[in-house]
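Hi X.,

You mentioned you wanted examples for the new student's onboarding notes, showing what a folding record looks like when two proteins sit in one file. Here is a clean example. The first protein comes first, with its sequence line followed by its structure tokens.
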Amino acid sequence: MLKLLFSSRWRWATLIVIVGMAVMVRLGIWQLDRLAQRRAANAELAAALAAPARPLPDLLAETDDLSLLMDREVLLTGQFDFDAQLILLLQNWQGQAGVHLLTPMRLADGETAVLVDRGWIPDSERENLAAYNQPQGQTTVTAVITAPELLRGQSVIPDTPQTEWYRVDVPAIAQQLPYSIETGFYVKQLPPTEGLTTLPYQAERVIDLSEGPHLSYAIQWFAFTLMLGGGYLTFVRRNSQPEAHG
């Protein structure tokens, strides 16, 4: 059969099929690699979810690699700076249009300031923001460390200070504040344990620990490889029979 496949009649077609099969096998292996990466990321996320909430300054003191802190639940004790509060536009709550309140918090350690997404209010309340300047004074909130929302991985700094934003571009927001804040992340305040009773509303965490479609995609690519190889062998055999009888 090998002699027939590499005969002058079938040589180039055989090479093309071999290349096609090799590409599909590589795509299947790539999907298995993606599956392994997804499982590793899920393991890290599960570990972060299982870890108890800790004071943010303690976590920052333990590592310079902020990627290790993403999705960690933290405690922040400090005072909100409502004078520097911003609005995150185009947010919705159960189908209702609104905005999120982004408020810097100056922590009690006197060295750290962090941007906090305090939650959602309806568009109808945008002219009444002062009503949501609570709590005053020192307070403690529980939040989740979240990566900044950058445009193609880059911060876009506007020419003039903005009070309304479409993304939580923390490095750009930091440029317009009169003091330094952490620029490698922001935090999303979690809802109170007793449930949501007053605005702003904080969303529950949505955790996806699924493995995605990578395994099924890998199986498909390997199946396509077998189908192409088997189909080609059958085609060559059938179309070579007259030549063999002659």
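Then the second protein repeats the pattern, sequence line and then tokens:
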Amino acid sequence: MIPWLADDSLDFPPLELALDEPNGLLAAGGDLSRERLLKAYRKGIFPWYNPGEPILWWSPDPRCVIWPEDLYLSRSLRKRLRKQDYTVTFDQAFHRVISACASPRPKQDGTWISNDIFCAYLDLHHQGHAHSVEVWIDDELVGGLYGLAIGRVFFGESMFSRQRDCSKIAFAWLARQLQYWGYELIDCQVYNDHLASLGASEVPRQYFAELLDEFTVQPLVHDWAFDLTREAFNGARDE
């Protein structure tokens, strides 16, 4: 059994009470209010559930992260990043990005991004907490991602690609810009091969929570606009 969150409290159970199987399941219930979501992320907890299920809250162990300075770019991706046929923006089409992320993927029957999730993160975007990265080719949205920025941590949520490598382009530009601004960490939640190809690693949940205690306290003040050029990738770690 896992705890059921009270509607009148924003408290979460201690992370060490999360289940081993399924990995990281911590609690159920509650709501997707702005206050609860921000508190959850600061503690290393995020919601993930299928439509028709109660809200489920997770904190997996280990945790997948990318240190911005450890962004890994293959030779082919670095070459792609230098081409002039695309543009990258922040927060120009958040609604369209999360809609694209919510679209079913090949070999998937549905999506975990329900209307409630959609509305909750759109509210976070309107309040300046959630941000999107868009990749454009000939004025067509071909890739992107979205997530939350709290303090010096960016919590990645989902990404999509309609042309080859366009989600990687979005992530590479994000990571380089975050590094330039002084961000310490990108949370990727759960390890997979796609993230590993960009330099992701895993850290113990307790260590991740300690990092959040340190890095989510002091907010960074900056405009959400790219001020990098393609030369930012000249010295990127590659194979």
